[in-house]
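Page 37, continued from 36.
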């Protein structure tokens, strides 16, 4: 059994401090334990019901007695009944959970809530029946012990009635940090679960594509498919995730060409609002007049286009060569790689898988990998609909891997 399950746990390794105590007044370095470097372990089944994961964040190091860990409970999972010799603080960081002191009704807790467990009080904590819950747990040891375990919480005890909140019912309370917001859990709880647990809890966090790229993908889909009504929230998120205002505006110009002017025009108001609210200096949106070098494949592409449609539509061929590829694609407000990503996503969102190969190749020239394209299309499924993603994925899967 792990010796590290302290916050919720069993025993505590008393830090080897006596040897260091004499040196404690001299300068000591800060200790940074990096995100992702700490093990995440299942909690011991004799003291927990259901799937529970524990990430120990910090041990007690003298003279501090406090240790802390992050504990994630799957729906219906919970601790056994237990007490803490010096009490415990729980900071609910995600989801919806339950907590109960022996003899009191069960209470519902949500992201942002903080629970103080007084010393010696018999209690349990865990997830709600329908949603996972994560809390930060901080406790101080006494004589090396942070917890005294008692019997498991029975199903009857777990499913006992939850105490109604005094002021407002929990269902209508906006939950900080819950992407589903206030309306979804009330009107469409099944959708809210998908929004919180799958879309934002899993897909947006996948490392295969950065949050910045996901934001580029998302605003591209919303603009290309005319969903300007929900654009402002995602444009804000995009800027938070590191998309520059000049890049966001570059996406708009690019999509005017690829999705049509009305789609870009419909997005202008959201851009204007978000830029105004964030006090974006619109002078920074003007890009340098000089252009990126022409793509290596452009000359061949231009010749091919002139040969195929030049006779029937010479103006279209000229605009395609001079404006689309000669100017738009060579502007400096978006990198070639980002421009390729935006184009692929826009085409896929609009159901055009015929031209994907050309742009996937173009993206590859500038470092966009097929894995990133596949991840972008997976992400797109949530914003353009699953069938658009599936169509595009089929087209991508046909391409030879180079
Ligand atoms: Mn506890």
């Amino acid at each position: 059994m792990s010796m590290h399950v302290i916050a919720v746990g069993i025993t505590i390794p008393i830090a080897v401090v006596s040897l260091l105590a004499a040196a404690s007044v001299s300068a000591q370095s800060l200790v940074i334990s990096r995100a992702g470097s700490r093990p995440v372990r299942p909690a011991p089944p004799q003291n927990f019901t259901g799937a529970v994961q524990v990430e120990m964040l910090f041990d007690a190091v003298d003279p501090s007695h406090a240790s802390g860990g992050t504990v994630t409970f799957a729906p219906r999972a919970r601790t056994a009944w237990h007490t803490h010799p010096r009490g415990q603080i729980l900071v609910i960081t995600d989801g919806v959970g339950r907590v109960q002191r022996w003899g009191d009704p069960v209470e519902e807790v949500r992201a942002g809530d903080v629970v103080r467990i007084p010393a010696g009080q018999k209690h349990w904590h865990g997830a709600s029946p329908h949603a996972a819950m994560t809390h930060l747990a901080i406790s101080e040891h006494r004589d090396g012990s942070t917890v005294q375990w008692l019997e498991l919480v029975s199903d009857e005890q777990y499913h006992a009635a939850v105490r109604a909140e005094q002021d407002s019912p929990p269902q209508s309370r906006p939950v900080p940090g819950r992407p589903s917001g206030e309306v979804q859990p009330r009107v469409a709880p099944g959708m809210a679960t998908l929004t919180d647990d799958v879309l934002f809890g899993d897909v947006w966090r996948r490392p295969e594509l950065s949050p910045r790229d996901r934001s580029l993908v998302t605003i591209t889909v919303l603009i290309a498919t005319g969903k300007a009504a929900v654009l402002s929230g995602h444009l804000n998120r995009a800027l938070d995730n590191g998309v520059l205002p000049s890049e966001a505006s570059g996406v708009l110009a690019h999509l005017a060409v690829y999705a049509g002017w009305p789609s870009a025009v419909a997005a202008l108001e959201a851009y204007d609002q978000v830029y105004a609210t964030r006090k974006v200096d619109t002078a920074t949106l003007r890009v340098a007049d000089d252009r990126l070098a022409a793509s290596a494949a452009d000359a061949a592409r231009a010749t091919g286009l002139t040969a195929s449609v030049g006779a029937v539509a010479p103006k279209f061929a000229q605009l395609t060569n001079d404006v689309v590829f000669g100017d738009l694609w060579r502007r400096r407000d978006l990198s070639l790689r980002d421009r390729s990503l935006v184009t692929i996503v826009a085409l896929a969102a609009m159901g055009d898988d015929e031209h994907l190969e050309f742009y996937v190749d173009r993206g590859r020239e500038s470092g966009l990998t097929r894995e990133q394209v596949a991840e972008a299309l997976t992400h797109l499924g949530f914003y353009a609909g699953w069938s658009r993603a599936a169509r595009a994925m089929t087209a991508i899967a046909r391409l030879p891997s180079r």
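Residues 40-167 form a domain with the Jelly Rolls fold (CATH 2.60.120.10). Flag for discussion at group meeting. Confidence is low (pLDDT under 50) at residues 1-23, 166-174.
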